[in-house]
Amino acid sequence: MTIYTQPPLFDVEIAPRWADQDSLGHINHVQYFSYLEEARVHWLRSEEMLALGGFRLVIAAIALNYRQEWRHGRSLRARAWVARVGNSSFSLRQALFSDDGEQLVAEGDATLVHVNEDHRPEAISAAARVVLARSLIES
């Protein structure tokens, strides 16, 4: 498990739904991707990100490692740190924790690309780089 000492880029509480369970009674693994997407959207709609004038992102790659089962009835904490910043893309180290933040449930990396209105890669602004740099972790 990676130890995260930097403050997260975001920390969003996610409440699994009853329908997210599979036939074994635990949260279906594919739902974790939806939870992380929900957290990223929440972050993109934050006042800080809206003040940047829009930050259009597309997912270029995403992966998760599952560390333990999770069941309906307890919330999860979706957190992310910045692992790398390039010209038009950056990588997030995303993680889902127990509601108290003590147990790691899943973690993995996502590469996001900043795009313009035509969905072509566009350089990340200096202001956005400042926001991303606050939660940059050392590889």
Which descriptors would you attach to this protein?
32% strand; six-stranded antiparallel beta sheet; 3 helices; alpha+beta
Protein model, in words:
This protein has 139 residues and is an alpha+beta fold. Helix content is 19%, strand content 32%. Strands 1, 2, 3, 4, 5 and 6 form a six-stranded antiparallel beta sheet that branches. The longest helix has 14 residues, at 31-44. The radius of gyration is 15 Å and the shape is globular. The two termini are 13 Å apart.
Q: Report the span from N to C terminus.
A: 13 Å
Low-confidence stretches: none
Q: Would you report the number of β strands?
A: 6
Strand content: 25-35%
Report the sheet with the most strands, covering strand number, pairing sense and barrel closure.
Answer: 6 strands, antiparallel
Number of helices: 3
Q: How are helices and strands ordered from N to C?
A: EHHEEEEEH
Overall 3D shape? globular
Q: For the CA atoms, what is the radius of gyration?
A: 15 Å
**What's the helical proportion of residues?**
10-25%
Tell me, rounded to a whole number, the average pLDDT. 93
- Helix and strand composition category: alpha+beta
